[in-house]
């Protein structure tokens, strides 16, 4: 069971680990896992699209600090 939030950031053009793997991992990790595909990025998302990666990471981390009420 997944007790912590997990955010999968994936390069949509990743040839090493296909996007389908990320979707399978998301399903296996449970409902506290989110997935985001980064367009025009391959395997090394943080190097190929650093601004998109950092924006997504900042958004995810902010959601942990300041969660929206359900």
TrEMBL record:
Signal peptide: none annotated. This is AB hydrolase-1 domain-containing protein. InterPro entries: AB_hydrolase_fold, Meta-cleavage_hydrolase. It comes from the Eukaryota. It comes from Arachis hypogaea (Peanut). Gene3D superfamilies: alpha/beta hydrolase (3.40.50.1820).
């Amino acid at each position: 069971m997944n007790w912590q939030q997990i955010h999968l950031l994936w390069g949509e053009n990743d040839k090493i680990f296909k996007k389908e793997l990320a979707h399978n991992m998301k399903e296996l990790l449970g409902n506290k896992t989110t997935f985001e595909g980064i367009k025009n990025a391959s395997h090394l998302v943080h190097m190929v699209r650093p601004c998109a990666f950092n924006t997504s990471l900042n958004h995810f981390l902010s959601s942990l600090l300041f969660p929206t009420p359900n």
